[in-house]
Specification:
The complex is a heterodimer of chains A (321) and B (324). By secondary structure, chain A is an alpha/beta fold. Chain A has helices at residues 53-61, 78-81, 83-92, 110-120, 127-140, 157-168, 187-204, 215-221, 239-244, 249-257, 297-301, and strands at 5-20, 23-38, 42-46, 68-73, 76-77, 93-96, 175-179, 207-212, 224-229, 232-238, 307-308, 315-316. Chain A has a domain at 251-321. Chain A contains 11 helices and 12 strands. Chain A is globular, with a radius of gyration of 21 Å. Chain B has helices at residues 44-52, 79-84, 97-100, 107-119, 123-136, 142-145, 155-167, 185-201, 213-219, 237-242, 247-254, 294-298; strands at residues 2-11, 18-28, 33-37, 61-69, 72-73, 90-93, 173-177, 205-210, 222-227, 230-236, 303-307, 310-313. Chain B is an alpha/beta fold. Classes of the chains: A alpha/beta (321), B alpha/beta (324).
């Protein structure tokens, strides 16, 4: 890891056992992902359902156990070290979840949920200090301090997501892993929450891993982006470069499929029917080969490795580009 | 083909009704796709359920207005009464196909069930028609898939099955309520393409409901923008995107991330939509509208025709310049 990286993930592997029709299957959700996050940077992780982006985020904050690779926070291999190092990492690497209703305890007040990490780690001097910290954190996310005594059902979706963000920044962490934080919100509310996250990143000097299926949102908030398909990173680079000049055939298809809000650029009818392979029957070679217009014989047997493809950390996993 | 006039759907007691859909009017012609767009809670799904005669009972009811299908008033008819009266050629597909399909029945049987109701055939002819319908929705390997269960299909394939079931009644009108919202974008674009193709091939009128302006731009011929139970703007798709006249329509477009690539901050529409029951006199959008004046808060806005086929519910519409 380079000196200004705050988080480095090396060859991370996470798998689950699933049972289908009486048989056990091993699902490799994350299959050898490496990435680094520089201090103050927002790295976008984009991909479709089942590509492993959420599992990657959950493994980084320690919610699922990886079965290979390592996660280094500020030069420490925290997961392997365990104990105090792991606890420190967990307080410094926090998560914002997709569904703010499912991720807030319905029977606890917003204030108690926001203060939970602080309570567990004993950071509050006394009750007055605790209340003051909750109030200032709620204010920072644009909620009135009186929300501390309310329950999740009393809040709108946008307010709940603000509460979810407040919980992730008390006490102030170094890294926030945000898993689809705006995809459950209406577009007008989504813009408000995205603006809030950009403001907080600046004020609190946060580094952020921003996971989303929405390239529009990723383009807005992240400076670098990694595109995932079937558990692997297939392309990586500066966000504008990747969005404007995608190299991997999958990235190209993904960008082409975004419904552009411009009726003069209709693309219906130009897209062939094709779907990703089953997670239970992973192809031997490149997972995208069956859908890929460039696929050759080699793609069917040989998994392309992520290799450097230019300046600004541009990288690509494809035999034929 | 489908004509909706002053449709008002209400909750609560007769004496103090709360209107969740208030005076909605629109038409959809054969071979045309009307996009009904709006955010959560604006009443777009209630509108579609009222048009289908599927409002949950007990619950919201049609308090006023008419739904006219191919010249016949079907407003107060339950779906089975519509079928008996010969006005059954209207179908609907939903957001989450998994919750609409029976998980323990083969999809061939589920499609054949709809065929039996509408074609009065059963057994082998019904299954043969089911297979035809699967071919029509471009299901890969249709003969095999007849014997599949819903869990064996992907999300996109399940939505194709739902469309096949909907087509069993040879619909004149198809209502699609967020049919691609749960799908990945590379699958969504395939389903949108299929609906566009079927609309032309079967000469159907499609009412397509979504919150996604991008999907509207790709698919719709005309657009109705809904806010707090009212249609605030109706126009052809080019006019809505090229020169939106309602401040809400403009706000919706301005805050889309794809329109602001690289911008440091997104423009936002401040505040939130009003809760039903809290709506008072004046324009429903006035509390969030940057251009609102005193009279917007005092009196209901007029519906103005700004050009042929372009109507806006606003006393002071935008002048029609393109979006920034």
């Amino acid at each position: 890891m380079s000196s200004d990286d705050i988080l480095a993930v090396r060859d991370l592997k996470v798998s689950f056992t699933a049972r289908r029709a009486g048989r056990k299957y091993r699902v490799q959700a994350v299959d050898g992902v490496s990435l680094s996050l520089a201090e103050g940077e927002v790295l976008g992780i984009v991909g479709e359902s089942g590509c492993g982006k959420t599992t990657l985020g959950r493994a980084i904050v320690g919610l699922v156990q990886p079965d290979g690779g390592n996660i280094a926070f500020k030069d420490d291999d925290a997961i392997a070290a365990g104990g105090a190092a792991l606890r420190a990492m967990r307080l410094n690497v926090r998560m914002v979840f997709q569904d703010p209703y499912a991720s807030l305890n319905p029977r606890r007040t917003i204030g108690d949920s926001v203060a939970e990490a602080g309570d567990i780690n004993g950071i509050f001097r006394d009750r007055t200090d605790r209340s003051a910290m909750i109030a200032s954190t709620l204010t920072a996310v644009g909620l009135d301090p009186s929300f501390a005594t309310r329950y999740p059902y009393e809040l709108s979706g946008g307010q709940r997501q603000r509460a979810g963000i407040a919980r992730a920044i008390l006490p102030t962490p170094s890294v926030v892993v945000a898993d689809e934080p705006v995809s459950a919100l209406d577009v007008s509310v989504q813009a408000q929450v995205l603006n809030l996250m950009m403001d907080l990143r600046e004020q609190l000097r946060l580094s952020m891993l921003f996971i989303s299926h929405d390239l529009g949102v990723i383009g807005q908030i992240s400076s670098r982006v990694a595109v995932m398909y079937m558990g692997r990173i297939v392309e990586r680079g500066a966000t504008r470069t990747v969005l404007d000049h995608p190299l991997h055939p999958y990235t190209r298809a993904l960008i082409a499929a975004i419904p552009k809000p411009d009726p003069s650029k209709r693309i219906l009818g130009a897209i062939e029917a094709s779907e990703p392979p089953s997670l239970f029957k992973r192809p031997a070679g490149c997972a995208y080969a069956a859908r890929c217009p460039l696929a050759s014989d080699r793609c069917l047997v040989d998994i392309p490795q992520l290799r450097s493809a230019g300046a600004d950390d541009r990288a690509l996993a494809c035999h034929n580009v | 083909m489908l004509s909706v006039r002053d449709l008002t759907v209400s909750l609560g007691p007769e004496t103090a009704p709360v209107d969740i859909v208030a005076g909605v009017s629109f038409d959809v012609a054969k071979g045309e796709i009307l996009g009904l767009v709006g955010e959560s809670g604006c009443g777009k799904s209630m509108t579609s359920l009222a048009v289908m005669g599927l409002l949950p009972q007990p619950g919201p009811r049609v308090r006023a207005g008419r739904v006219v299908l191919d010249g016949s008033d079907v407003t107060q008819l339950q779906p089975w009464q519509r079928v008996e009266a010969g006005h059954g050629r209207m179908a609907m597909i939903f957001q989450e196909p998994m919750t609409s399909l029976n998980p323990v029945r083969r999809i061939g049987d589920q499609i054949a069930e709809a065929v039996r109701v509408h074609d009065q055939v059963s057994g082998a002819p019904a299954l043969a028609r089911a297979r035809e319908l699967l071919e029509l929705v471009r299901m890969p390997d249709p003969a095999m898939q007849l014997s599949a269960y819903p869990h064996q299909l992907s999300g996109g394939q399940r939505q194709r099955v739902m469309i096949a079931i909907a087509l069993a009644c040879r619909p004149q009108v198809l209502i699609a309520d967020e049919p691609t919202t749960a799908l990945d974008v590379t699958i969504q674009i395939q389903i949108l393409g299929l609906l566009r193709e079927l609309c032309g091939r079967l000469d159907m009128a499609i009412l397509f409901i979504t919150h996604d302006m991008g999907v509207i731009a790709q698919l719709a011929d005309r657009v109705a923008v809904m806010y707090a139970g009212r249609i605030v703007e109706t126009a052809g798709v080019d006019a809505v995107f090229g020169s939106p006249r309602h401040h809400y329509t403009r706000g919706l477009m301005d805050c889309m991330p794809v329109r602001n690539a690289g911008a440091h901050r997104l423009p936002t529409v401040s505040g939130q939509p009003p809760a039903p029951g809290t709506i008072r006199a004046g324009c429903v959008f006035a509390p969030r509208c940057a251009a609102a004046r005193e009279e917007c808060r005092a009196t209901d806005p007029p519906r103005i025709a700004v050009s042929q086929g372009h109507q806006v519910l606003c006393a002071f519409p935008l002048n029609g310049g393109g979006p920034a």
